[in-house]
Amino acid sequence: MKKLKLYVAPVLIIASLLFADIMSVSAATYFSDGNFTFKKNGDGTITITEYNLKDGNMVVPESIFGDTVVATDTLAFYNNDYIVTATFPDTLTSIGDSSFNEASNLTSVVIPENCLYLGSGALQNCPLLKNVEIKSNLTEINNQVFYNCKSLETIDLPSTVESIGSFAFSDCSSLTSLVIPKATTSIASNAFRNCPNLTLYVYKDSYAQQYAEEKSIKYEIIPEYEIGDVDMSGIVDIRDATLIQSYSADIKELSDYQLSIADVNADGAVNVTDATQIQRILAEFV
Fold it and tell me: What does pLDDT average to over the chain?
């Protein structure tokens, strides 16, 4: 078992020769397990402050020495040249401001399902970042989160996103498509500055459509499909029931939009009950 290393920042004492006043400022206390430097939050949880390895595949554990990992600190991985992929545990609830700012070799990040805060500038200035998967129900894409990520081509935003902040996707020169959720009712005027190849996919008469028209951003209307038309073929048939069954068995994945129209019985879950409901409806017309 690795020994716990304790790092205590020195107490800074400033003495005023003229008035003989003494000021002391005590910095935070940091710990390390060799892989990560972290600080304790006082409630049995910890915040990661630094990655200490040169392994490109960074995997943050659920706990370190018995304390649960819940956050990454501001600038935790700032200017890191080694991290290529970043994987976080489901215990993570927050990724701090500028956590990956200028992580020059970062290509892929998965935001876990319980992470409801993605800080301002969290992934800005990552020139190779291309794959971002957001599993959580984020309500806000913060200021400058993806600013100047020149390799980012597309990203699926959760259907829960209500606002997109200043310069959130600015200077993402490779960004080609982005679906704006129905829930989105606020987008900063400069959110997509210098995105020459971007097409926004918006719902008819939505806030996003109005925004795209006002900002002269290319957009396309997302067609609305009938409840149950999971494969979006234009008709509800046995193939839709089969697709729901495959999803329930973890064989197929469905987009947020597909999940919304796959909930045939409107109980808030997508499972074989919905597939059975489709089969019953079809049977009535045979």
Answer: 89
Same domain, 249 and 113: no
45-51 and 67-72 strand pairing: parallel
Out of 127-131, 248-252, 257-261, pick the least confident: 257-261
Cα radius of gyration (the chain): 23
Does residue 200 lie in a domain region? yes
Cα-based angle 78, 84, 85 (whole degrees, multiple of 5): 100
Same domain, 195 and 250: no
Q: Is residue 16's pLDDT more than 60?
A: no
Same-domain status, 210 and 250: no
pLDDT at 224: 81
214 and 258 assigned to the same domain: no
User: Which amino acid, residue 51?
Assistant: Y
Phi, psi of 92 (to 5 degrees): -70, 130
Q: Which residues contact 208 (CB under 8 A, 6 or more apart)?
A: 180, 184, 187, 200, 202, 219
Last residue of a domain, one of 221, 250, 272: 221
CATH number, domain of 169, equals 3.80.10.10
Domain tally for the chain?
2
Task: Please report the pLDDT score of residue 245 as a whole number.
Answer: 95
Parallel, antiparallel, or unpaired: how do β-strands 163-164 and 186-187 relate? Answer: parallel
Give Dmax over CA atoms of the chain in angstroms: 97
The confidence score (pLDDT) of residue 13 equals 31
> In terms of residue numbers, what domain contains 254?
238-283
Contacts 24+ apart (CB under 8 A), 41-45: 41/70, 41/71, 44/68, 45/69, 45/70, 45/71
